[in-house]
Amino acid sequence: xxxxxxxxxxxxxxxxxxxxxxxxxxxxxxxxxxxxxxxxxxxxxxxxxxxxxxxxxxxxxxxxxxxxxxxxxxxxxxxxxxxxxxxxxxxxxxxxxxxxxxxxxxxxxxxxxxxxxxxxxxxxxxxxxxxxxxxxxxxxxxxxxxxxxxxxxxxxxxxxxxxxxxxxxxxxxxxxxxxxxxxxxxxxxxxxxxxxxxxxxxxxxxxxxxxxxxxxxxxxxxxxxxxxxxxxxxxxxxxxxxxxxxxxxxxxxxxxxxxxxxxxxxxxxxxxxxxxxxxxxxxxxxxxxxxxxxxxxxxxxxxxxxx
Length: 307
Description:
By secondary structure, the chain is mainly β. The chain has 3 domains: 74-146, CATH 2.40.50.320; 152-229, CATH 2.40.50.320; 234-301, CATH 2.40.50.320. It has helices at 3-20, 28-34, 45-48; strands spanning 74-84, 89-94, 99-103, 109-112, 115-116, 127-135, 138-146, 152-163, 168-173, 180-183, 189-192, 195-196, 207-214, 220-229, 234-245, 250-255, 261-265, 282-289, 294-301.
């Protein structure tokens, strides 16, 4: 065979190989690349597992907590002596003496210094200041402030004693079973009827409202004392009855003037029967403050409006 014929034969063979290769069976790797995408099966857990983005928060299944009653808060400062994380309660040994059991829940705001904290930050021995209110028969914490932060508070109660030599005022409020101790300084302002007065008005039985802060050593220091009522003073209340117990002789009025709630004691025998005397009735009550309570001297019930 000549040289030219041999070259032609080799070229033909190579050409035939090139024509056959595209028709060869693809390798497994090639099959995976070229195969059409498989349609998703709704019952295939491998395909649906990645689509379950929405998760249910167990807390969302719980009913919403009720709103707290609109009551003035009383500040209690002291040291945590007992901590029950199951019942959500702390027992505070107050700086003025005595112990107070205080409940809390997710509605309670907890502060660690100047930043928000949580119930996990509460520990035995911590010094705390707690803004408390009465929620039914329970002393409840609206705010808990931890560490030796300087805080401000407000409280209302009746003076049990005042020692001028120590500038020390003992106050009995509606929550604490023992009097709370408050110190006065030359910077303490004393007011009566919106006008400045002196410590001579701070006699036992006087009803006062105190705004105070705390020093680093834990002493409560009064910044402002407002004399609200002195024993023997007369007061007139006009408002709506929100509570009435004829057996105990207790009347609760929501004042139409300042929208605050006042408890008034009365002798049922001295109050003439009136069919209009019931809860939600509008009344005018003349009272005298006896050093502990507002005592009714007379009561006028406003007749219901004609329909």
